[in-house]
Specification:
By secondary structure, the chain is an alpha/beta fold. The protein has one domain. It contains five helices and five strands. A five-stranded mixed sheet has the order 1-2-3-5-4, with helices on both faces. The radius of gyration is 18 Å and the shape is globular.
């Protein structure tokens, strides 16, 4: 399609549609990350349900973390903060502003934001991975002692863990989430 031939109004409508698509992609990636933590036995079902509810109710562009879950009621939940980025690499590379935004997110996880002190929180950055690991590779030199790639069973409060999910990962996790959480809700109604 030749975008040069579109009117200004048509381009504005296209931009709105693309913004909505980006928000939906980010929300799906966020939900897939919850399923990943649940499947890896890192969070219990009740905490996963609380996180899902929070994600579904919250605007993707809202201030704060994409997921913030704490054990306020002594349920044995993990204190977790998660930032989610659905950056699409361009020919295997990220743009400078994408890298800057990722660095800001890692710093926000590490140092806290919005008045939340994250020292005693598990800190996770979830990213879309096109199969090149470009996001982690773009960050590891800047934060070499502060970030690690996620490996099941390794989460603690001393680092920001990067969970990189590919398209097949995300689609599989969302399908399993449907079975694990939403089928049960429908049956119990």
């Amino acid at each position: 399609m030749n975008y040069q031939n579109l009117t200004f109004g048509e381009l504005l409508e296209l931009k709105k549609a693309l913004s909505n698509i980006n928000n939906i992609l980010t929300q799906k990636l966020t939900l897939a990350s919850i399923e990943k933590l649940f499947e890896d036995d890192f969070i219990e079902r009740d905490q996963a349900l609380q996180m899902i509810g929070s994600v579904v109710q919250k605007s993707v562009n809202a201030n704060g973390y994409d997921i913030e879950s704490k054990d306020n009621n002594n349920k044995g939940w993990k204190n977790i903060v998660v930032e989610v980025k659905c950056n699409l690499p361009n020919h295997g590379k990220l743009l400078a502003n994408q890298i800057d935004n990722l660095k800001d997110d890692v710093n926000g996880l590490w140092n806290g934001k919005g008045g939340l002190e994250t020292t005693n929180f598990i800190k996770i950055l979830v990213v879309f991975d096109d199969g090149t690991s470009v996001v982690y590779n773009s960050l590891e030199h800047t934060f070499e002692n502060k970030i690690s790639e996620y490996v099941k069973g390794t989460l603690d409060t001393k680092r920001v863990y990067v969970i990189a999910l590919t398209t097949p990962d995300i689609e599989g996790l969302l399908n399993r989430m449907q079975n694990n959480f939403f089928q049960t809700a429908i049956i119990n109604e």
